[in-house]
Amino acid sequence: MSKHKVLVADPIADAGIDELKADDSLDVDVRIGISEEELLKDAEKYEAIIVRSQTKITDDVISKATKLKIVGRAGVGVDNIAIPAATKSGVIVMNTPAGNTISTAEHAFGLMASLARNIPQAHATVAGGGWGRKDYKGVELNQKTLAILGMGRIGTEFARRAIAFGMTVLAYDPYLSPSRAKTLQVELFQDVDSIVAEADFITLHMPLTDETKHIINEKRLKICKLGARIINCARGGLIDENALLDSIESGHIAGAALDVYEESEPPPEGYALLKSKKIIFTPHLGASTAEAQENVGIEIARNVRNFLVDGTIINSVNTPSVDSKTAQLLEPYLNLAESMGKMLSQISPQGTESICIRYSGKVAEMDTSLVTRAALKGYLARACGEESVNYINAPGVAEKLGLTLSETRPSDKNEFTELIEIETTNENESASISGTFYGATPRIVTINGHRVEADPIGHVLLVSNTDVPGVVGAIGTVLSKHKANIATMCLSRNQVGDRALTVLNLDDHLDQSAREELLAYESIHSAKLVTL
Fold first, then answer.
1. Is the separation of the CB atoms in 293 and 9 below 8 Å?
2. How many helices (H) and strands (E) does the chain have?
3. How many CB atoms are located within 10 Å of the residue 269 CB?
4. Is the CB of residue 434 less than 8 Å from the CB of residue 360?
């Protein structure tokens, strides 16, 4: 059995590398500081690449790395990884958001305390032979109001420390529920303008997106309290730095502390903010502790190994994360949904415009994002090829094909304890299929509104016919002639004499000539063989 080949391109903890090398199923190359040329040349060898912030996984690297399954980032930011290209190619991108949580929260808090008491400036004065006590009168943190923009892991840890220092903590995060805010003992605000107007200190802990870029801008700086102070240990670009400098020089903002920078890191020559004595600068030290470096190195090595060996997906930024226990629980649903998608693709009308997936009963209580991707994967495999679509890129492939995807959880009751339904539609037609489990056994239970019972495996013959005597005999005669053995058979009609559906699980493939013979019977309207 061949080994999974892994490249470690940037420095991670020795303990992480040791964990990778200890697994006999992995072949690990440690090539710290690998050049872009070498990476492009050898990318096709690797199923996994582990990086920090130095090595760039570009579109070209993704294109060359034809065996690549996963890129692991030892740290939070993934700016050096071409995520759209990775997603399109079905490559998982993982990071380690938890490993440096405490380090970053502590560093940001240290900057806030330093900003409040002018510690770096005072140190520089004393080290230079001066004293200047009167120049460095600070403010207490106790009983001050703190605004936290972004209440993820780091923002939450910052809040705990601020509360311990007697601060009143306000929070802005569109994804934070009121009940969670109450548990964290923070007051939740619905908009940024309102929260910055209340704050003595503002700290940012958000990702940089189109929505968050310059979330602290000229307009909001003018709304801030006179004498407010701002800390950014998250991402450069969250603050409009030119507007910040203007506000500090005008005396409206008392000071700022920056660990990250908008234009480049390190900041470019002539960086205007460096002239200000009211701004504290550190060189992106948020995660720079021995503990954090050890943690993220071990974590990413372990997560990459677990994915390659066990299929476990943890902290993926471009697909739902699934631990091994959840993956085991979801596996039957993934297999059923993918088979249903495959079947539906072979009975759907041409020019499908939308796909709707409905979850009822027990399955509706789960996180079904991966199940939906499995259904899409099955549906798209016929059009795109099994190798071209997977759980990661399926939504993107569907979007490129112009398919609109929706997922619902109907509240109306049905006879099944759980049910997955998939329907495709175009302007004039639709097709649908639903599936469930009888105990642990998956079953297709409706096809195009007909109640059936079929195994979602192998070769399934779907015969649409008028409900008249003799049809079953005709089907049996043709199948017998072509030596096609029937594993299971189900007859379905909605009313006497109307259209009926006959569903047969066959042991082997049925050739086209047999289907043409079936269609020669006047009462048989269609005969489709679905291969799963």
1. no
2. 17, 22
3. 6
4. no
For residue 54, the one-letter residue type is: Q
Q: Taking a C-beta distance cutoff of 8 angstroms, is the pair 444, 456 a contact?
A: yes
- Distance separating alpha carbons of residues 524 and 519, to the nearest angstrom: 6
The pLDDT tens digits for 76-114 are: 778 899 988 998 888 999 988 778 889 999 999 999 999
Rounded Cα–Cα distance for residues 470 and 493 (Å): 15
Give all domains of the chain, ordered by start, each with its CATH number.
Answer: 4-98+292-310 (3.40.50.720), 101-281 (3.40.50.720), 320-433 (3.30.1330.90), 458-532 (3.30.70.260)
Please give, one letter per residue, the 3-state secondary structure of 340-404.
HHHHHHHHCCCCCCEEEEEEEEHHHHCCCHHHHHHHHHHHHHHHHCCCCCCCCCHHHHHHHCCCE
Quickly tell me which residue has 């380690």 as its tokens: 96
Residue 383 scores a pLDDT above 70: no
pLDDT tens digits along 291-321:
988 899 999 999 999 999 988 888 888 887 7
Sole residue written with tokens 């240990």: 233
Contact 233, 259 (CB under 8 A): yes
Please list the alpha-helical segments (H only) found in 34-82.
36-42, 59-64
Sole residue written with tokens 């979007």 = 399
Query: Which residues carry out catalysis?
Result: 235, 265, 284
Tokens of 508: 């082997």
Rg value, the chain, Cα: 30
Identify which of 286, 278, 243, 284 has the alpha carbon closest to the alpha carbon of residue 261: 284
Output the pTM of the full model.
Answer: 0.61
